[in-house]
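Hey,
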Amino acid sequence: MSASRTERLLNLLLALLNTKVGLPRSVLREKVYHDSAENDVAFGRMFERDKVDLKQFGFEIETLTDPRSFGADDPASTRYRIGKDSNRLPEVNLTPAESTVLLLAAQLWERAALGTAAANAVRKLQAAGGFTDVDLPAGVQPRIKPAGQAFDDVVAAMHGRHPVRFGYLAVSTGREEVREVEPWGLGSRFAQWYLVGFDRGRGAKRLFRLSRMTTAVTVVTGGSFEPPAGFNARAELDALNELPIQRAILDVDRGRLLALRKRAVRPGSTPAISDPDGDRDRIVVEFRDPEQLAEELASYGPHAVVIEPAELRSAVVRRLKAALDFDAAPEPPVIFPEAGPTPRARKRTSEDQLARMLQLVPFLVHHQGLHIQEVADHFGISRKALIDDLKILICSGLPEGYPDDLLDIQWENDHVYISEHLDLNRPVRFSEDEAAALLTGLAMLGDLPALAGMPEDEPGSALESVTIKLTGAAGQAGRLAGSVAGQSVAPEQSQAFATITRAIRDGEQLRLRYLSLQRDEVSERDVDPLRLFSLDNTWYFEAYCHSKEGLRNFRLDRVESLEPNGRPVSGTVTAPDAFPARLYTPSDDDVLVVLQLTRQGVGLADDYYAERTAQLADGGLLAEVRFGSAEWLPMFVSQHGGSVRILAPGALRQATRAWINEALAGYDSSSAGRAG
């Protein structure tokens, strides 16, 4: 990142904002560019490039000409300026209820590609002074589960209008093919994310399921495109038909896989035909997406074998073989930083730093005297990075260069004050991805029931009013919101959701019957409910479990019964303040595992709260993760077929390899006994 270039862009912006009559090129070259350009030609190129960069922030540079000059396009007499209201965020004043709903919508995205954009948009509203500082409702935290690295890559390509290339498992042929696509939009339907775009190889619009992408998404360099006028991802996905229902014939170990057996349309009442020892039952389950079911069945390893259909059987075997192939690949050296996860590799640019500064100055104007570490934490950067920003800011100002013409910022005794802002006291408008993150998030909250801690009629009315305000503030930048269409995050288990919400609000204990997938058993628990949270439309509730004497998370779709037990909560544990709620609670008995993740699987490091990470040259990641049960690790590796492998401990790696080999042997031995 070039600090000098960041400073030059900022000085150019300040110069053009703070002139009424405009500045000629000669003044700009002497006062802003100094010795950056060796000659007039080099200066001209640099100036034109910087004008393009400022336009990306929405600052339209006006060109003023003197009709008395020799020619209207005479560079010597041409002057430049930026209107003081150019691209400033309109005034947006939000009520506490509107701020709460908007914060929920912004934090929906969490780690997904739009998460950073949503956080930036909220910071702009805070910097403008119209956002009321609120706490999230204690009871409910909906979130979007990132659809893998492909989601982030496609969003970036959409924003930059770049074509993409990826491997894809075609539904029609079952073969892997390379596709080159102009990404028009992304949307979620039937619990799956889809890319809508123009397939260059086929010369037509196509839809691609992200879960069927078999390689990383790469940008086609040197290419660009424009999506169709008025494109709307939601309208495209509304015309998408759900896949037809199919039936799978499975042989499963007797007495195991209770969750799978509960979905069987024909439970295993007779021994499996292909099981000579009589230890398996044959069951039939319905499904729509073979790839989605194959991911689940691969995680069951040797405890389940697909008999029919062949497509599903092949999909499971492909995952198991990919896991083995990855395990056999050469190992990278395991070297971690001293502590903490390393940030994802991303080239920081002058534009990134300037964007942050354009939020920082108005934020300091409206929040005088904050501690320097508090400011750094607010922007998600280190104290050193913030001080670097402040050092550039205090050296930036108007072309005259007098002390009064500079931004005036002090941080004495570690508290930051600003006394001269040079008309940067208002943040710039939302970018396209910022507007898309907020507006799409608000739309996804539309069917969410009343939130714990808020009156039942308040979330709906606040949602409608804040959507209207944000749509007006976004203006033209809101067009990308039409390119991203998420599904509602309302829970399917609405009765259980309402019962838990009431119990949180009223401080009541609950008794539940719960199916544990890892233990493969149903148990009864008395719990103190603390909060609800989601990943897409899969909802969990966090509670203190009295039988386990600790915090536990329960999936709503695995709760068989739920009712108040007539006792108040014990108050033993309160809901943690940290956001987001964690799916896994660390303990002293955890197993510390070193994983290698491919570029497609790097999101697993966030999903499982890696304690340390290290970037690999191929875009993958080393991750050190705590797991509560080592017995579950073979399921985890098989499920993600080829995206993750265990490097240490060695005994666990060997046990996982043996488990996958046993699963594949089951498919070899059952080949002669297929039904039909």
